[in-house]
């Protein structure tokens, strides 16, 4: 499942769905959620974040509430987990292992309390006691004891039948093989997890051995418990928290809190942050306290679970199809977490930008263990924006601070806020460097620029290395076998140095006389060395646009490189124009600015690169090694969309979005990602939502896929 599919499925608001659209949407959601359940519970390889998964479940429930007659027999609201894997024996649960209803804000908790009181026919203000405990992000496990002896262990599976992982459970130190003074029959339930320290050590060993690493502790714990070979599980540091029970011959206690205490007395590890709370206000206070402590716990949690404390009331409240009425999981914001800022390091990029990087106490944010985050620039650290206006109410960021980290999708983690109440005594304001930490050159901040940059240019090793990494990147020269790691290795190599792009193409010729120089390097042998030489030779012929992009000139991305290539056509013409051009004046400058999409800042950056003696020499040496293919300008004669701006939205049924975009650009159109007053045509497929509404508001011409095909079929 991918994010684009989920985004398209969610484009139509629930209240705007027709019955036919609702039925189709429920079918799609059932398939998406089913695949996600299998990936998470059955394969220990989730392909959706918790936030995306929760959003799909909420949307499915909202559609079912609006169209109850359309609820499917395979509705996700009727399902728990995923079926047991085929590699394990099956164990039926005598008492079903249920999932929990989720809450996402304080109003959900207020509603939880109201529903309980209404069901029990209590006054709206009647006091209620709850327990609150961290929601461990691991793998649910049920342990069955008879006469005090562990007879089997089972995963949750689909709630009805789990996988027999008894042999693996016996290797976990927190799970007693025998308990004394226990009921004749007792099923103890809890969560298998892995601590942050053990997770880091496990991945370090995997990297040393060249084996697969895990994305996060939850995946590592689940993958370790569900090994067919118990010896593998034994070698991995798994832990277990007990917090519930299934079948029993004698009740453990009369209250949830009492039962947790009894489990601890029987020898099980229970979570020390479990609290008895009197009313919803105390629940929320404990939630906030746990959220603040989250990064220091040493293991992953993704929320706090609230349960009615009185077990008699739990029995009266009973169960829904897949969740108990007496419990709820208050989830943390999916992409937010608090942790400690341990240090601020400065990294130097290929354009000389000095970028501050936060070194953090590791914390899991959005399913990924985060130990580094961007701090943007010196203004951001000082608590102001580029215009000098306060951000975070003017709070600066200092080493030692307790900071809030966030992620959105797959972007680099960022620091969002700081808690001044936890600032260490003596923490000093951060002094942003005015010299490059790599080469000692002056770091200059130009007027209007938010970034301070090293003035050392190619004498700065950090800039040289980053430019080389960019040069061999996938969208540039994309040389198989020569990635970032190899670039770093060759850059410091005295016998086979690669200090600039031209050195790459001299490598094979230079080394043919003594192949041992390369094949004796780490990661290379006879075959891999020969393959690298062949890959380098294959890239001696390169399209003009790729070459321009690969030069790593500031402000020149892929789109700009394509614009320049199409305008000038050949490397000779482009090189001559940049050599002739002067910033701010002359015919060559005016011609450069005439390109739609090229502004003065980008133009000045390109011209300056060709007029810097050292950088120009690097470019010339590279060009001498290459054959540059001319850019092929599309023939847009007779094109009905040449020069127009198009936007595609919804689901295209007769071609992929990429095919449609490529066809439009080949006909001379510009394809944009959002609708604006500059949009000429919106092509809307099924599921078009907000973009179609905005197009209607702006009076933008809107056509469907068939009309689009008819429009361009003759071109």
List the helices and strands and how they pair.
Layout: H1 3-9, H2 19-42, H3 50-66, E1 90-92, E2 102-103, H4 106-119, E3 129-136, E4 139-146, E5 149-155, E6 161-163, H5 166-169, E7 185-193, H6 196-209, H7 217-225, H8 230-234, E8 239-248, H9 256-265, E9 275-278, H10 280-293, E10 301-308, H11 311-317, E11 327-331, E12 336-348, E13 354-365, E14 368-374, H12 378-382, E15 402-406, E16 414-419, E17 443-444, E18 453-454, H13 461-471, H14 484-491, H15 501-511, H16 516-519, H17 526-538, E19 541-543, H18 544-550, H19 558-568, H20 571-580, H21 587-593, H22 600-611, H23 613-623, E20 627-629, E21 645-649, H24 657-666, E22 670-672, E23 681-684, H25 690-698, E24 701-703, H26 705-712
Parallel strand pairs: 2-11, 19-20, 21-22, 21-23, 23-24
Antiparallel strand pairs: 1-6, 3-9, 3-10, 4-5, 4-7, 7-8, 10-11, 12-13, 12-15, 13-14, 15-16, 17-18
Number of domains: 6
Please summarize the sheet with the most strands.
5 strands, mixed
Q: What's the CATH class of the largest domain, please?
A: Alpha Beta
Mean pLDDT: 85
Envelope shape? globular
The portion of residues forming beta strands comes to 15-25%
C-alpha termini separation = 35 Å
Radius of gyration: 31 Å
Please identify, by name, the CATH architecture of the largest domain: 2-Layer Sandwich
Poorly predicted sequence stretches spanning 5 or more consecutive residues:
1-10, 81-86
Structural class: alpha+beta
